[in-house]
Amino acid sequence: MTKYSIENNFAGVMVVPVFEGKGLSVQAKELDKKLNGLLSEMCISDNFESKKMQMSFSRTQNKDVPAVLLVGLGKDTDFDIRSLKQVVGACVIGMQGKKIGNFSLVLSNELIKKFGAKKLGLELAVAVETASYAFDEHKSEADARVQKLEKLSVVGKFSASEKTNLQKGIAEGEVIGHSVNYTRHLGNTPPSIMTPSLLAKEAQKLAKENNAIKVKVLSRPEIKKLNMGCLLGVSQGSVEEPKFIIVEYLGGGSSQKPVVLVGKGITFDSGGLGIKPGNYMNDMKFDMLGAGTVLGVIKAVASLKLKKNVIGLIPSCENMPSGSSYRPDDILTAHNGKTVEIIHTDAEGRLILADALAYAVKYKPREVIDFATLTGACMVALGNERSGLFGNDESIIKNLEDKSKEVGEQLWHLPVGEEYTEAIKSEVADVKNLAGVGGPGYGGASTAAAFLQFFTDYPWAHIDLSCSHYDGKGKPWIRHGANGFGIQTLVEYLR
């Protein structure tokens, strides 16, 4: 756990942000004077132009300030919340790489003025928490693990109200950051460990930690009683039992209609009988990040004690090949009696979501929002820095877009409509689970969304998590693996 403090004196390793073309801030000039002009010298000798995320590190001869890191913010006019989180995250990871677990960040009056003290404190803490997280518990050598960030001091000349609001923002940001990392940890856990049963146990742990959360876990016999033929069909090729996980947070009182969140919980996706090529099967442990997102949002909402009613519905199973696997040409019957022709067994996520979306009707929801690592087509369209947004209610779409911008996440509105709805119609069932508009697979993200929409009759939005994890070494501001996309957007949406 990182400890935070707010200080007005320079002590320890100092991180000094600088806007491009503006030179050192008032606070940085004060530190520069204490260091006998070292910062000014670094700007000249290192050709430091304050480009975004440009860094210059130097040890000092000052016992109070043993080292400094200059970091560029880029142009003030281009600097937004997303940029702030990237820069702060990159500084944290950079310091951890130097085995520095305790440092101070100089906050200028310009940054306070630009974002407001509370917002700045919140986003700062989210960036720090998410950057400092590393999934390294399976490394056998302690020296190979990432340096823990023990303390971050925020240094500046703050008024009493600014200090109070910074503290409030940091406290909220810690909660959100911890929830994001909770989801990331679920996603990063190897699939031999993160089975549907373990995912259910993790949900039950949330209820034990916070008595405002109630959890109910349904196993195969109860799922059969609910006639969830799609979830049962996808799961039948695996030795792991499917689970239908219901998570309730009722903070808004009995008269308030709930927001229902639905998350895809495929804990490993081999493709089933339509098995994936080997190189496409890597990272399929992340196919449960829709479920992880739902749990992370509810964890944050409950910890912040928001006066909202939020229900989480998580269908979870593995999609595996075996003699008992569901097949192409099978017809499955969903919870609401609608039938689905199976074209391809690797289009399984939409099937298990169909049962959950149909089940959501019982809550008479204000709206339903689903999260799923649903289609490669969405990643082809958008890359892995944005996620696709679909829906049948423009006010929900607009609100989600606005909130995502406020927190530095990126949603992109993609279409549903008549051509996609027509494409999924089946000759032998109500709908089919794979279709294209104008050619096989064309418009794959939108036809998948149209399939989900077929099982809704309430205000609804769908987030296709094309931005859900990073390969390789990750980004300068966040390490590889699950990234927790969407949690902060939903927390702000639900406030």
From TrEMBL:
Cofactor(s) needed: Mn(2+)
Primary enzyme class: hydrolase
Domain Cytosol aminopeptidase: residue ranges: 181-491
Annotated compartments: Cytoplasm
Details of cofactor binding: Binds 2 manganese ions per subunit.
Catalysis: reaction(s): Release of an N-terminal amino acid, Xaa-|-Yaa-, in which Xaa is preferably Leu, but may be other amino acids including Pro although not Arg or Lys, and Yaa may be Pro. Amino acid amides and methyl esters are also readily hydrolyzed, but rates on arylamides are exceedingly low; Release of an N-terminal amino acid, preferentially leucine, but not glutamic or aspartic acids
EC number in record: 3.4.11.1, 3.4.11.10
Keywords: Aminopeptidase, Cytoplasm, Hydrolase, Manganese, Metal-binding, Protease
Catalytic residue list: K276, R350
Annotated GO biological process: proteolysis
GO cellular component: cytoplasm
Coiled-coil region(s): none
Example GO molecular function: metalloaminopeptidase activity
Repeat is among the record's keywords: no
Binding site for Mn(2+) 2: K264, D269, D287, E348
Residue ranges constituting the Peptidase M17 leucyl aminopeptidase N-terminal domain according to the UniProt record: 15-141
PANTHER family found in the cross-reference section: CYTOSOL AMINOPEPTIDASE, LEUCINE AMINOPEPTIDASE-RELATED
Described function: Presumably involved in the processing and regular turnover of intracellular proteins. Catalyzes the removal of unsubstituted N-terminal amino acids from various peptides.
Family to which this protein belongs: Belongs to the peptidase M17 family.
Record's protein name: Probable cytosol aminopeptidase
